[in-house]
């Protein structure tokens, strides 16, 4: 997998403000207020079976990376009972365009080799950004170890106003 390489300036897990919770085969990323800030979907290998993935999780096997999925932008428009005037619509579209410009600038600066924008699986009014992540060396499927490894990226997104 080609992706953003993480692992520079690693900290101890006690210093990470991000926490991870296992949910089936992926990890929810929680911020300091315990709100879901994104998801990490480990790369278990292209041909890994459900049983193999369960075994890897149980053994906290190392992985080389995966995919980071974070909220990209919320439109505030696609609710079934939308009833606004043209001026409020223009304001909402302006907010969306400014958020899109911030994301575009961030993605250009980071030079991700691949990314994907999708409709959120939990909110049809929101888009998500998915980017590949390649660790400098394999990281155990441990909530603390993974949190430390992705914390710099999450903090960078937060500083840029993207979370």
Could you characterize what this model shows?
The protein has 163 residues and is α+β, with helices and mostly antiparallel strands. It has one domain. 32% of the residues lie in helices and 32% in strands. The protein is built from three helices and seven strands; from the N terminus they run ββββαβαββα. It has helices at 50-59, 86-110, 143-159; strands spanning 4-6, 19-23, 26-30, 36-42, 62-74, 116-119, 126-140. Strands 1, 2, 3, 4, 5, 6 and 7 form a seven-stranded mixed β-sheet that branches. The longest helix is centred in the middle third of the chain and has 25 residues, at 86-110. It is elongated. Mean pLDDT is 89; it is low at 1-14.
Q: Tally the beta strands.
A: 7
User: Low-confidence runs (pLDDT<50, min 5 residues)?
Assistant: 1-14
Q: Mind telling me the C-alpha Rg?
A: 17 Å
Structural class, by secondary structure, is alpha+beta
Number of helices: 3
Mean pLDDT: 89
What number of structural domains do the residues give?
Answer: 1
As a percent range, the share of helical residues equals 25-40%
Strand content: 25-35%
Measured between the Cα atoms of the first and last residue, the distance is 25 Å
- Give helix and strand order, one letter per element, not per position: EEEEHEHEEH
Instruction: Give the overall shape.
Output: elongated
User: What summary fits the major beta sheet?
Assistant: 7 strands, mixed
